[in-house]
Design goal:
The chain is of the alpha+beta class and 298 residues long. It has seven helices and nine strands. Strands 1-2-6-9-8-7-5 form a seven-stranded mixed β-barrel. Strands 3-4 form a two-stranded antiparallel sheet.
Amino acid sequence: MVSPRANWKGYIKFGEVSCPVALYTAASSSERIAFNTLNRKTGNRVKREFVDSETGDAVERDDQVKGYEVENGQYVILEPNEVAAAIPDSDKTLRVDAFIPCSQIDTTYFDKPYYLAPDKMGKEAFVLLRDGMKQAKVAAIARTVLFRRLRTVLIRAHGKGLIASTLNFDYEVRSSKDAFDEMPHLKIEGEMLDLAEHIIGTKKGSFDASKFDDRYEAAVAELVKAKIEGRPLPRKKAPAASKPSDLLQALRESAGMGTKPARPKRPAASANRGTSRKAASKTASKTKQSSAPSRRAG
């Protein structure tokens, strides 16, 4: 079995304790189906080429330079050595700034996850940090230079090791105010809320990533296989007819109640007692009428 290649090696430091660690990619898209762009006429791959937007001439790599647009069509040119000088110095150390409760973590800021494992010596200090965070139910906020940028990293206990998630900066995360600005102020209660809670209760489960299939990848793989074998291409099924947009009716159907509202059933004993009282009342009324003296006209 080939050992994974570390993306970064350095140290993690909390207080005066430090130990060597390595970062490994936790999520990758390399296994996804990838396409090449071809020339339809020749079947050959095409290559990307940078051209001058005004002259249309090809621009060689050595003549390409970074530029920042300050006005429409006006740029500040930045040479490669000038950009390199702006990169923060790195001492390859993840310095823990603070430990925060896991309940305070806002996943909106998550960028990319990496496995953080001990590298060579220092495993005792690593396990001490891992188990200490587990027991205290906290995560660590650390900073270091990763991949040419100063990054903030959230570190959490994960199985036998730690998982480090790079975080987006505050200016990179859009405010939710704009997305939810037009949300109406509604109060849902009564039967609708009861039905919703019932449906949620019947759908409770546990997280299992292996059950989440990538239907697009499977469909593309089947398409490629059919093309290779010369079989008819798979056809997409027509979508089912949509149901009426009545929320309450949809909730009742989801709960298996059809279109009738839920009504509590009376206990059998109470129903029988009610029937007996009605029958007794009718019998007494008839008896009273038959026993009454008849009046004749004089």
